[in-house]
Amino acid sequence: MIRKYLFKSERLGFRNWLTDDLPLLAEINADPDVMEFFPTVQNLAQAEGFMIRMQKQLADKGRCYFAVEKLEDGAFIGFIGLSEQTFEASFTPCVDIGWRLAKKEWNKGYATEGAKKCLDYAFNHLNIEKVNGIAPKVNLRSIQVMEKIGMKKVADFIHPLLNNDERLKECVLYEIHR
User: Fold this and answer.
1) Which of 8, 63, 85, 125 is most buried, judging by how many CB atoms fall within 10 Å of its CB?
2) Do residues 118 and 68 lie in contact, with contact meaning Cβ atoms separated by under 8 Å?
3) What confidence tens digit (pLDDT) does each residue in 121-153 have?
4) 178 in Cβ contact with 128 (< 8 Å)
5) Alpha-carbon gap, residue 98 to 139, rounded angstroms
6) Angle formed by the axes of helices 110-124 and 140-148, to 10°?
7) What is the pLDDT averaged over residues 35-51?
8) Which residues lie across from 96 on neighbouring strands?
9) Separation of alpha carbons 102 and 110, rounded Å
10) What is the CA radius of gyration of the chain?
11) What share of the chain is helix, strand, coil (3-state, %, to 5)?
12) Which band of pLDDT confidence, cut at 50, 70 and 90, is reported for residue 2?
């Protein structure tokens, strides 16, 4: 099947969400290892709600956490992209870069490759001036990706949506400018 991608990196295709993605996204969101730095795993209804929000963001703003496939075989592996964060903080609303990939696709450089391409898309296609990255301090893998793509740490903060989670509430804020 030939997919229509919004843009591509060397090994990845970035596209809008399709109904067929729902069971695969739900499987990723139900994996405790993938969701280690979130309060809980997520169910099918939560995955569907996420997909609907991403489709709406893409239609309204030209960006979202994009569905990502490997170009070599068209396999859906998760998401990488740009989404607006609106929780209450001194730096919000902001455009956030984020990713969530199936565990079997970890340690292959996909998050870094995809995030770099999303920054290029943000700066050169969408004319966004600044992109932020947010992660709990304990999420060293995501922090490493943010640093690899050239983001700089600008603050530590208590995430208001994680305030009751002792392990996750202390977060870092990274940013990169056009």
Assistant:
1) 63
2) no
3) 999 999 999 999 999 999 999 999 999 999 999
4) yes
5) 13
6) 50
7) 94
8) 83, 132
9) 11
10) 15
11) 30, 30, 40
12) low
CB 66 within 8 A of CB 118: yes
Instruction: Please choose, from the candidates 83, 68, 81, 95, the residue with its C-alpha nearest in 3D space to the C-alpha of residue 10.
Output: 68
Distance CA 109, CA 20 (A): 25
3-state secondary structure of 158: strand
What is the predicted pLDDT for the residue at 87? 94
SS3 40: coil
Q: 138-161 as b/e, with b when 16 or more CB fall inside 10 Å?
A: ebeebbebbeebebeeeeeeebee
Distances (CA, A) of 56 to 16, 60, 83, 103, 135: 10, 6, 11, 27, 24
CA dist., res. 60 & res. 58, Å (int):
6
Query: Global pTM?
Result: 0.94
Q: What is the mean pLDDT of the chain?
A: 95
Each as own residue / partner, the long-range contacts of residues 123-131 (CB below 8 Å, 24 or more positions apart, any chain) are 123/178, 125/7, 125/62, 126/62, 126/63, 126/82, 128/63, 128/82, 128/95, 128/178, 129/177, 129/178, 130/94, 130/95, 130/175, 130/176, 130/177, 130/178, 131/82, 131/95, 131/96, 131/97, 131/175, 131/176
Backbone dihedral angles phi then psi of residue 159, each to the nearest 5 degrees: -75, 120
Amino acid at 177: H
d(CA 137, CA 167): 9
